[in-house]
Design a protein that fits this description.
The protein has 472 residues and is of the alpha+beta class. The protein has three domains: 164 residues, Beta-Lactamase (2-Layer Sandwich), CATH 3.30.450; 79 residues, Signal transduction histidine kinase, dimerisation/phosphotransfer (DHp) domain (Helix Hairpins, Orthogonal Bundle), CATH 1.10.287.130; 148 residues, Heat Shock Protein 90 (2-Layer Sandwich). It is 49% helix and 19% strand. Strands 1, 2, 3, 4, 5, 6 and 7 form a seven-stranded antiparallel sheet that branches. Strands 9-11-12-14-13 form a five-stranded mixed sheet. A hairpin with a 5-residue loop joins strand 11 and strand 12. Helix 5 packs parallel to helix 9. The longest helix has 53 residues. The protein is rod-shaped. The chain starts with a helix and ends with a strand.
């Protein structure tokens, strides 16, 4: 049972059925109420018409005992102001809901105490404009039924103030309401079954692509083949967008996994050379101490240390490490970092135009500056130039440029050099052991600080790397 109602189809069908059921109950109640009210008002109108017909006869001078009530097809009573029944329908056997339950009239008396009088001496009465209604029942000629009674007063008659009660049967109203209720009790369940079934089928058809997506994702999980893609339906609904987003996610995962595989392979390759070289030197030194190349061993160790630091930083960046929210004075950072570079091959010229603070990690930004200057030192012929400017439409960008006068970067390679472990052929000949991670690290740090890192041709003819960061 839990499995059945745990599906989207079952919940959708149940929800649709409940909503329709509530709507049908509300609509049915409104229809029954309107039907009952309408028919009751019709019965009231019929009762009022009969009561006013009798009241008019009394107002024109007809005495209660002279009324011809045999033609009336409804129960009628005429009651005086003392509550005595002066006239009633001939076949009336029982009545409830009027001013009196009496069914046998008593002789009428005029205001002067005489039980009878000439027509000319009788006063002319006045029929009230107001009608009061009562619910009750009566038995006429052996037939009992519910009635709606109309009460109409007649004033200033020879018999004083008289009240006429006339009833109209409620059988039509009761029959119509009963028929409508029976139809609803039969039709509503059938309609609910149809609604539930149609909703089940429509939902099942609509969710069929979702089942295909689920099955394909299960196959991807089982096979670990991220090259597979889920089927995309030829629609423009949420399911199609889900399929497209799922395929985009699979593509991103495939790219990420492939990137990690290349990273591990390239890291293993880069680590193998200095480790093998260091091991060889140590083995030679152990066998022949006089042949130990201490400087070479130290260089290989430093290279291993720098490579391990680069790999650790890349791992932290890939893990989503936040750059932090501290303010960094980029001008002060540039002056301090460049002042500590005493072993550079070529001189570095610094041109700082303005000062601005950026938000981020001081250590990572210093690493970007160091990597860019190191890269420029390896390719420059006579010197390196570092420029810091504040620009943008509202002075909201700070730009750090590092230029050299080397051979530059071919336009076709200007994006590839920011990939990990990528070194151009010329760089390999000049590189004294670089692993091709410096520019990749610089680009990743720049992006995580909300900035950009690009390369173009420098005025000196070499490469110009431009780091753009938002002012904090």
């Amino acid at each position: 049972m839990r499995r059945v109602f745990g599906s989207v189809r079952a919940r959708a069908a149940l929800a649709a059925t409940l909503v329709v059921a509530l709507a049908l109950v509300a609509a049915g109640a409104a229809v029954l109420l309107a039907l009952r009210t309408n028919l009751t008002e019709q019965a009231g109108s019929a009762a009022d018409s009969g009561a006013r017909r009798v009241a008019t006869s009394l107002a024109t001078g007809t005495g209660p005992g002279e009324l011809d009530l045999d033609d009336e097809d409804q129960p009628v009573q005429v009651v005086d102001e003392d509550g005595r029944l002066l006239a009633a329908s001939e076949d009336l056997e029982r009545i409830e809901g009027t001013g009196t339950s009496a069914v046998r009239p008593v002789p009428a008396r005029t205001d002067d105490g005489d039980d009878s009088g000439d027509d000319d001496d009788r006063g002319r009465g006045k029929v009230s404009d107001r009608t009061a209604y009562h619910e009750g029942s009566a038995t006429v000629d052996g037939d009992s039924a519910d009635y709606r009674f109309a009460e109409v007063e007649v004033e200033d008659t020879a018999y004083g103030e008289l009240t006429v009660f006339a009833g109209a049967p409620l059988s039509a109203e009761q029959g119509a309401v009963s028929t409508a209720l029976t139809a609803m009790l039969i039709g509503f369940p059938v309609l609910l079954v149809v609604v539930g079934g149609v909703t089940w089928l429509v939902t099942r058809r609509a969710l069929r692509p979702v089942e295909g997506i689920r099955a394909e994702m299960a196959a991807v999980t089982a096979s670990q083949d991220l090259a597979r893609r889920v089927p995309e339906p030829d629609t423009h609904d949420e399911v199609a967008r889900l399929a497209r987003t799922t395929n985009e996610t699979l593509a991103a995962l495939e790219h990420s996994v492939e990137r990690q595989r290349r990273f591990v392979a390239d890291a293993s390759h880069e680590l193998r050379s200095p480790i093998a070289s260091l091991r060889t030197q140590l083995e030679v030194g152990a066998a022949h101490p006089e042949l130990l190349d201490v400087e070479g061993a130290v260089e290989d160790t430093v290279r291993l240390q720098e490579l391990a630091a680069d790999l650790l930083l890349l791992a932290r960046l890939d893990a989503g490490e936040k750059p932090g929210g501290a303010g960094v004075d980029l001008a002060a950072l540039v002056r301090e970092e460049l002042s500590q570079r005493t072993g550079d091959r070529l001189p570095v010229t610094v041109d700082i135009r303005g000062s601005a603070q950026v938000t981020g990690s001081r250590g990572q930004l210093a690493r970007v500056l160091g990597n860019l200057v190191d890269n420029a030192q390896r390719h420059a012929r006579t010197g390196v130039r570092v420029t810091l400017t504040v620009g943008g439409a509202a002075g909201d960008r700070v730009n750090l440029a590092v230029a050299d006068d080397g051979d530059g970067v071919p336009e076709s390679e200007r994006e590839r050099i920011f990939e990990r472990f990528v070194r151009l052929d010329d760089a390999r000949s000049r590189d004294g052991g670089g692993a091709g991670l410096g520019l990749a690290i610089a680009r990743d740090v720049a992006v995580r600080h909300g900035g950009t890192l690009t390369v173009r041709s420098a005025p000196e003819g070499g490469a110009l790397f431009e780091l753009g960061l938002p002012v904090g």
